[in-house]
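ARCHIVE CARD
Drawer: 12
Card no.: 0347
Subject: one protein chain, sequence and derived structure
Cross-reference: see card 0346
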Amino acid sequence: MNADLMTFGYFEHVVLMIGWVVNNAIWGMLNESMVAALPFVALVLREWYQARREGEDEGNKGLLTLNRIEAGFYAMILIYGFCTAPIMSVNFQTGQYDETHWKQCGTKVYDSTTGGGSGAIGGRTAKAPLWWAAVHAVSHGATNAAVAALPCTPDYQYIATTLDGTEIADPTLRHQLNEFQKWCYGLAKHKLLREATANGLPQDLVIDVDWIGSSYFLNTSGYYDSLHADKPTQGFPYDSTRDAGRSGTGPGQPGYPTCKEWWEAGSVGLKARLASQVETDTWDMVRATFSSGDAEDAALRRVLAANPRGSQSPIGGAGSAGSSITEGYGSDWAMEKINGMVQGLGLGLASMAAAPMKGIMVDALPMVQWLTVMAIVMVLPFLLVFSGYSWKVTGLVTFLMFGTIFMTFWWQLATWMDNNLTEILYGNDMDGWLSGIGNAKERMVRWFVVIAMYLVLPALWMGMLGWAGYKGGQIASQAVEGGQKEVSAAGKGGGDKAKSIATKGKF
C-alpha cells in the first residue's frame, strides 16, 4: 500500500522522512526483540491475577478470564494493526503554494496536486501505519482549508519587509545620493530653517522636508530649482544658459544640473535610478495596494531610511560658515517623535529588540513545529507499546499531532491580523506608514501585540486540544473497558447457567 502525503515545505518533507525512517527502525527493534508482544503477555497475567483475587461466587473463572482476555485482545490488536505496524509506503509531496495569492493576501494556500514526491532519504525508504497516515492527511487538509478561508487582504508587512531589505547596490548611486544630500538637501533645509518664522514649521511640512525627495523643495522656487550639483555630473549635458562660467565643463561635456533636474530627470535622475534598485514585483505590489500618487515617494523614502546614510560632511559656503547638516536620507522626524513620545526607557529598549525578534521568530517557529512532529513520530512505538496499546494514549497523541500541524493556521492568522491592524490603525495615512513615519509608541505596542499572537494563540490552542484529546482518549478507553465488562458479565452468566444445568440446580 502506498500513501501520497502532502507537506508544507521542503524542511517538513525532510524531517518527517527522517522521523518515519527512525520510527520504522525502532518498531523493527521492538518486534524482533519481542518487546512489542509484552503488552499481550501483560494482559493475560493481569486478567489471571484478577481472577485469582476474586472469590468463588464469581462463577466459572476460567471462562470469565478467557472472555476478559479476548475483549482486551481485540482492543489492543486494533491499536497494534492500525497505529503501530508500518504497512503503508509513504511518498511525501512538497506542496506548491499560490505565490500570487501569498504576495497579495499574505497567506500561503497549498495545492496538494503539484510538487515533486519522494519516498526515500539517504537511500532509506519509510513506511507509516494506516492511522497516522490518515491523521497526517486530515491535519494538513484541515489546515490548508482553514488558511484558504481567511479573507484576502493586502500583505502590508511583506511589502514593508521587502522594501526594508532592498539594498542600494550601485556604488555610484550611493555616492551621488550622498552628494545630493550634501549640496542639495542640506543647503535647502538649512535655508528653510533659517527663514522659518518664530512659530516654526507646519507639522505636515516638517514631515515632508525630512527626506531628500521633499516635494516642497522640488516645487518651491528658491530651493532645488536654484541649487546645483557641485561638479559636472554624467547624464546631464552641458547647457550654456545654465553652466556658462562654471569650471571643468563645456560643449560636449557633462554639466551642472540643478538639484530639481538631478532628482527628477528621466532615467538618469536619482529618483528613477533609486527606483530601479527595487524589484519589479515589489513595485507591482505597491501600486496595486496603495492608490495614492505619493505611494512611490513613500516607498523610496522607506528604502533610503533602511540603507546606510553614508558620509555626512559639514556644509560650507556663503551664509553657512561653521554650520553642519547631519540629516540622513530618511525619516529623522520619526526618530525624533520616538524620542519624544516614549515615556519609559524599558519600552524603548524592548521595542528596538522586538522588530528583529519577530522576523527571526516567524522564520523559526515552523522549524520548531516540524521538529516537534518529527519527535512525536520517532517515539510513537515506545509510547504505544509501553502504554499497553492504550486507547487513551492513542487519542492523546492523535490530538497532539493534529494540534501541532494545525499551528500553521494560527501563525497565518497572526500574520493576517498584523496586516489588518496596520490598515485599521493607520486608516487614511497608509502612505505615512509605508514611508516609516507615524505614531512611534503605537508601533512599539503593536509589535508586542503581534508577537503575543504568534505565541499565545498556539499555546491556548494546544492547551484546549490537549484537554480534548485526553478526554477523547479517556472516553475511548472507557468504552473498551465497558465492552470488557459486558463480555465478562455475559461470560459469568453463561458459566452460572452451565453450572446450574450440570448440577440440576443443586448448586
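Annotation on reverse: Confidence is low (pLDDT under 50) at residues 310-353, 479-495. The longest strand covers residues 88-94.
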